[in-house]
Design brief:
The protein is α+β, with helices and mostly antiparallel strands. Helices cover 60% and strands 17% of the residues. β8 (305-319) and β9 (326-338) form a beta hairpin.
Length: 482
Amino acid sequence: MKYLLSIAVFLVSTIHVLGDVDSLNQGAVKTWTLEECITYALSKNLSIVDQDINVQRATNTYNQDRFDRYPTLNASASHNYNFGRTIDPFTNQFVTDRIQSNNFSLTSGVTLYNGGRISNTILRSENEIERAKFQSQSTVNDISLRVADAFLQVIFAQNQLKNFETINKSTTTQLEQAKKLYEAGTTNQRQYLNLKAQDARDQMNIQSAKGSIRMAYLRLQQLMQLDLNIEEFAITRPNFDSVSMANQWSIAGLINNSVSSLPNVKLAESQLRSSTLNIDISKSAFYPRVSVFANVNTLYSESRLERFNPQLRTSPIGYVEGTNQPVVTEFTSYDTRVSAFGNQLNDNFGQAVGVSLSVPIFNANQARASVQDATLAEQQARNNLEQTKFGLKADIIQAYTDFENAVATYNSATENESAQKDNYEFVQKSAEAGVATTAELILALNDWSQAINDLERARFQLIYSRTVLNFYNTGEVVLSVN
C-alpha cells in the first residue's frame, strides 16, 4: 500500500504540468517511459534473478521426486588382495596364501508401497513450483511499485518546480512595478521590500525543487541499476487532462477479483496446500513399506584351480610278508592351474530376487511428533491465508471509502481554488488602483498558492484512489484516470 500511495503523488502532480521537462533534462537525451523503467529494472534486479533460480530449483526437486517411482539400478565391481589367514570361497577352507579375487554385481530395487509418501511428495513438489512462481510474481510487483514510486517522485519534484516558477512570475511582475513606483516616489519602501522578500522566498523554493529533482532521478537510477549521468537521463511524463469521478466498482466485486488475481493470496493458498500434503507425508511413517529387489553377481579368485594333463602313476603301499615283494597301487596325477577368468565368471554366476517388508513398530515417537508438527504448521498456514484475505478485504473497504471521500474533497478544493484565484485577481487590481496594500496582495497570492496545492492534493487522492481500486480489480499497476 505504501508504494501505491506514491503512485497517487505522481497522478496528482501531473495534472497542472505544462511544457517540457525542467532545464536539468534539456538537450538530446533518451527519455524513459514508466513501462521502460520497470522493464529495465526487472531485467537487472538480482532479487528477480534469485526468484527465477528458486523456480528452477523447485522444478529440479519435482523432477527428482518423480523418478522415485522408478526402479533403482546399481552396478558394482571390486578387485581384492587377501593376505594371511582367510577362507577360500570355493573350498570353505582356511588358506594362508595371497589370493587375488574380483567381485561383480548388478542390483535393482523398487518401492511398491510406502504409505503414499512418494505420491504426496510429488504433489507437494509440483505445488512448490507454483508457490515459487507466485513468490516471483509478488517480487515483480514489489519491484515494479518501487520503480513507479521513484518515477512518480521525479514527476512530483518537477511539478513543484513548475508551480514555484509560476508563482514567482507573478511575484516578479509585482516586484518590478513596485520598484518603478518606489523609484518614482509614489510608494513607500516597505511595500517594495515585502515583495523583494517574497521573491527571495520564491527563489529559495525554486532552488530546493531543483535539488529534489536531482535526488529523485538518483533514486530512480539506483532502483533501475542504471549507471548513467543525471544530465543524460530524462523521463517521459504522461499527460492527464481530466480525471473521472465515476464509480464503476463495487466492494464485493473488488474483493472477489483481488482474491483471484493477487499473487499474495495465491501464495498463501499454495503454502496451505503444501502444509496439508506435509501431514500426509508424515503419516506415511506409520504404514509398512513393501519393495522388491533383484540381484545378479559373479566372482573370480586365484584360489579356484582346474586340473589338466592326467598321468597314470604307481605308488608302493606296502610289502609282502616273508618275501618283501612291494605292493603298489595305481593313481592318476594332474597338473593344476588357475581357472580361466571367463570360465569362473560363467560358473559362479548367481541370481537372486526377493520381496522386502518393513513394518514400523516403535521409532522413539518420531513419526507421531512429525505428524503433530505438520498439523500445527498446517493450522498456521490456514490462519495466514485467512489473515491475508481479511487484511485484503479491510484494505479494499478503506480504499473504496477513500475514493468516495476524495471525490467530495476534490469538488470542494476546485471551488476553493477558483475563489482564491478570483480573490487574488481582485486584490491585484485593487493594489494597482492603490486601494489594497502590498501585504494584502502577498497574502492573497499565498492563499491562492495554498489553494492550488490543496487542489493538487485532492487530485492526488482522487487519482490515487482510482489507481488503488483498479489494482485490486485487475491485479495490475496501471495509472487510472478514466
